[in-house]
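step: validate -> pass
step: tokenize input -> pass
step: predict -> running
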Amino acid sequence: MRADAVPFSEALRVWLRVAIQSFGGPAGQIAVMHRILVDEKRWVDEPRFLHALNYCMLLPGPEAQQLAIYLGWLLNRTPGGLAAGTLFVLPGFLSILALSVLYAGYQETAFVTGLFFGLKPAVMAVVVEAVVRIGKRALQNRLMVGFAAAAFIGIFFFEVPFPVIVVAAGLLGWLGGRFIPAPEHAAEAGAVQVKPSWGRSLRILAVCLTLWLVPLLVLFFIFGRDHVLVQEGIFFSQMSMVTFGGAYAVLAYVGQTAVETYGWLTAGEMLDGLGLAETTPGPLIQVVQFVGFLGAYRNPGGLDPWVAGLLGSLVTTWVTYVPCFLWIFLGAPYIEALRGRKGLSRALAGITAAVVGVILNLAVWFSLHVLFGEVGEVRWMGMRLLVPAWGTVDWAAVALAAFSFLALFRFKLGMMTTLALSAGAGLVWYLALTRGFSS
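step: predict -> pass
step: emit ->
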């Protein structure tokens, strides 16, 4: 079927199906789109699907959501891209909002506490599994292993900012040309029918930048620079421009900044948010909505806390995803010509290798805060060392983590099953413990 022969109403129903089934992180979400659009509907052929996916992998932001925007644009132009990208996010947004309200209002209840107690060790295992899975694909030679090791050392011990690591890895990947095999590209499936032009590009840039920045300016003039809503808008706008390598890579950057710099939530609560995002439809990066809700709920700045939390969710989600539409609508026609250049492909390969080290940092940072009640910080020869208090080790969390690792790596139960079993076990243990103490 020709791309322009797909009725918009039918495409809308399909994108709603995709949104509801978009569990399992980027890999699962991309697989859902491939099954429905390529295998079932045959609206897009295999080479063109891979062509779009390779483009989205070059961009900052959640690649699965951007792929949905790209394919929606391919099928029904701008209305199709808007519908596909918005529907892809909407179920996750509503789910995370409801769970954020539950978390903020009922966190002290035994049921919610027990549920999240079991969820955290499973999330730790899921992040480690992501390191292994991405590492097998990305670390193809010793130079790439070196990129990953350097990225881990830089961010974990020396607190090198994530954007600096991305830029350095891309530059070194480009310079390291003959040592890094360029990824193979799919055969061309036909030119994009919307040809690039300066007029079109300027119109898209003007509209998207207005939608992106004007709400922040309004908040700035109403509340002032130091209000939490303005801080969240600025911080997550910056994040949206440096989120290369997928959600796991940027979560270390978001988690450490939100916890250690702004104090919007604790490290354990960041894990709780990641668990919520893992178990709801939509992009994993939707965890930023949970961060935005809690940060504004606890620092309302004159607003009602529940109103502030809702606004925090909206602001955070808005500035995270509006740039995704900009990258697709503006860049898709241009990137078609650039995709075959080996230098660009090698730069991307270098970034992907460094991302493995960044995700490893996330895994270590999360693991320390899950397994130990106290984690100290020591400075030595310019390095930051995280030192756990060994007397505060949580043996129940250790047992649940071991169970989660076995479920994922040995028995291949899958992410959703592992999260559900661990959460259930944590709930049973916690309720039994509290009832034992109360009696």
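step: describe -> The two ends are 68 Å apart (CA to CA).
step: cleanup -> pass
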